[in-house]
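agent: user wants the structure for D-alanine--D-alanine ligase from Scytonema hofmannii FACHB-248. delegating to structure tool.
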Amino acid sequence: MTVLRILHLVGSAHNDFYCDLSRLYAQDCLVATAAPSRYDFQIAYITPDLQWRFPPSLSPEDIADTKPIPLFDAIKFITAQNIDLVLPQMFCIPGMTHYRALFDLLKIPYIGNTPDIMAIASHKARTKAIVEAAGVKVPRGEVLLKADIPTIRPPAIVKPVSSDNSLGMDLVKEATDYDAALKKAFEYASEVIVEEFIELGREVRCGIIVKDGELIGLPLEEYLLDPHSKPIRNHADKLQQTDDGNLRFAAKDNIKSWIVDPNDPMTQKVQQVAKKCHQALGCRHYSLFDFRIDPEGQPWFLEAGLYCSFAPKSVISSMAASAGIPLNELLMMAINETLGMT
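agent: tool returned. relaying tokens verbatim.
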């Protein structure tokens, strides 16, 4: 068997939060998928000062002991390594776009979606417009700049157009609450999207993976919400910082989220809509979408999260595992799609 040399692209060119988040997931992936007879893992670690490191592991000690180098030297190093493919694990917008485009220029294939698709998906309003044009239901919304005044009557959702993990998001119940919500959202982006609030029935995520060119819908993940006490998910539901400064996954305890029974009547309905989203956006290898299901059972598209770190706690990994697809098989499927093998 040929040993594949895989470069894990880790860190952030934007801020320490995304850098830590990327390291957290990538470290779990490296441990869980290690198979020396099959893979030779290399690590490229980018920090917000735009320096590159190639440490032997993602331990803080190994990172600190590795000399940082600029992009020019990093490109020279990478091109000398005979990398077979790249596994992108950066969550910041430059990481999802510019750094993937770099490997297009270097003609080194990578798992996951292309920079243009990632750029669209990172802008919630543009993503909504594309999937709506494909016939998917989306909440009515408007994009605001700082001088604009919202016209959607509360209740409404206010969120930055380009932040993840619910950063800057708020539920406005009265018109007098708009000023504070908009101020908070504009801290994270220069544009803010205001949407009609969809009454809560359920909130789910649906993952799509590609095998031999065929789209496969994975079991849904559902989140614990309550129409009165907790109508939306917020940042604290997704990531929390521990006392030692590390990040931990808040929604991975089978209490705040769980895998939906595949026989649930909503599963197939949501999977069909998710496949429409995948195709409309031009996704490849895998995709992931959030849906709000209203009390009448109608799914409404919320947003796309087009990344997977192939860590055990990655959402797509969890969904695949519940469908009987172990992590190493999931990774191999993505590698085969990336390299065009069957």
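agent: one observation worth passing along. The longest helix spans residues 16-32.
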